[in-house]
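Hi, here's the filled form for the chain we discussed.

Project: internal
Contact: R.S.
Residues: 315
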Amino acid sequence: MRQLGAAKDVVQTWRELEKQVTELRDMVTLAIKEDDLSLQREIQHEIGKVANQLDQLEVRLILSDEYDARGAILALHAGAGGIESQDWAEILLRMYLRWAERRKYQAEILDISPSEEAGIKSATVEVKGAYAYGYLKSEYGVHRLVRLSPFDADHARHTSFILVEVLPEAEEEVDIQINLDDLRIDTFRSSGPGGQHMQKTSSAVRITHLPTGLVVTCQSQRSQYQNKESAMRVLYARLLQLERAEKEAEKAKLKGKHVQAGWGNQIRSYVLHPYRLVKDHRTGYETSDTAAVLDGDLDEFITAYLRSKVREKND
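And the returned structure, exactly as it came back:
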């Protein structure tokens, strides 16, 4: 039913666009016949809107992989560098929350580990909305920041790294089945912000999947039940990702290719000094408007990545 609903939405979108184009054609015929300049200007404006819609739909057509239409789990991990990297992690977290807000997606922080001084050590965010994973999968990898450190008395230039993981939302008991006997569930007091209630009760939850050793924690909600539900969603997503990674590794082995992942996969640099530039190393797309990017304006980077993947397939 979910797939049927999504298919109906796609058909309706294209039918509406077809109707707009038909109406524009009639307007063009009338404008030529009447030699109406104001109508011609209106037509040019409407053509621009249709062209923009077509660009967006073209990107949507690219999102045809198995899990692209689903929501996403986003996980950020500060790298070596202490407070500098932890501050960078918090900046990136805000960037993705602003991006989700721009696209009218629902973003919820499931777990966050604050730093003692500034920034965060890690964070896990659930992004709900059609094709959230399809768009956000372009963000998987290491993000590098170069700037004058606000935490350095000498204002020296520092380089920081953050690992961003992107997982597709898993459909419980459909994509992955979990034996409850394979889980160890521990509760503890929340260490993050949230008032006295969260500090005094054991509302935080840690789930360990014994066969794989995967550990998931959640402490953002006030109730233990809510945190357990959130942690299970993340666990399902991580197990699905693990299964996909094993399949990809097997394919690569059969093809004789080595799959490299982790910290060596630096995908994008954000340079704030001595010049301003954000550059994606996979596609070559870059912009000097660093403020807009850090405020969530990521669509051009995402589109460039998706189109590059299409070219790779065609080659």
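Let me know if anything looks off before we file it.
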